[in-house]
Sequence to fold (407 residues):
Amino acid sequence: MDQLYELAYEYRKTKLWKKISEDQIFAIRLNDGQIGFINIMGAGNEFNAINLTIGEDNLLNFKKVIESNMDYSNYDYFVSTLLLENHQLIFGNKDDLDPGEVKEVRKFKKDHGIKISGSLTFPYFRKSEKFSPLKQFDNEKDYSYIKQAISASIDLSNILGDSNAEDVDIYSIYDEPSIMVLENDGESYKIKDSVDVDWNKEISYPIANIINIETLKNIKKAKKSGQMECQLVVLPEPVEDSDFVPHYPQTLLAVDKRSGEAISTDPVEDYTKNPNEIVNSFFEMLLNLDLIPEVINVPDQRTFNLLKEICASSNIKIFVKDNLIDLDEVKNELFDYLDSQLPDETNDSDVISDDEMLQMLDMMEYMANEGIAPPQELIDLLVDGVKTGIFDDNLSKQIMQTLNKIL
Fold:
């Protein structure tokens, strides 16, 4: 890990995020032959990261996400983010890291005489996998990918110097450009060529194409009537699998227009790994409930692709349509119910960031200068925190300097 931390702090010195905007993309040829697409986050001063997206399909998903203007209240945006797969070096605050990671970073900083403190100064590493929250790296390939991305970003900063990103053919993803590629020549990353991306390529969603023969026979024989609205729905709260790994479950949710009856399949961990499983479950449920429709209307291409071949085999028409009101109502009721089942979370408002702590110290000093004594309980808490090592060395030093001034 020391080598990665060393690279991370070397990258931080480049301040590459001041030279390149978050929507400007460059690529690297990874040592396994794949093309990795990189964008640098940090221009807005609220988030600082290197984001590595591997492969054209993932890049198209990424473009779809950023073009949605990052509307976190929008369900479609939420689902799009769960289809992303990427690797990140992130500079955050210590509260963003696990305690073990904080300990590692502090030890590295102490051993290497790094005095940087304040917000966005703790490096850590995360990856996105389909239908999963951000998770820690868990294999050597993850670390190898991000190491290559950091090294290339450092070398790009040197290549740029005082130039603009456009001067070396790095352009906004919104312009749908050819993308400049860096390649390692054994000593450093250098501009090699560019790669053309098929920006008009449809995002490929899984298609279910195998159904139980008996189920298919029975659907063909069944009397079909009416319409059904259906969507592959991602549940909005993560759950843990048997190994305590969190994921966002998916289910096929449908409402029958004749009866108003709502049905859903058992949730799965990742429908993309076995799309036939969830679709077989869905049609078997329709048979058992005697609800075989003539028409299934769906709101998105993802659900359409999943069902289209089985619907064709079953002589059921399927269409993509907007404003499926009954389906939206059932979906909202489901989400409201799931939300009501969540336990109350502990209020974390008492967790104070380093920046907030520095502001509090300034206020205490101001109060003392105005003749107002800070509460003794607060002073005792700060002294105890310094003694027990809750704060890093720099913050502890600033706390004690402030207390020495005011006491």
Observations:
- Confidence is low (pLDDT under 50) at residues 345-350.
- The longest strand covers residues 227-234.
- The first helix runs from residue 2 to 14.
- Residues 2-195 form one domain.
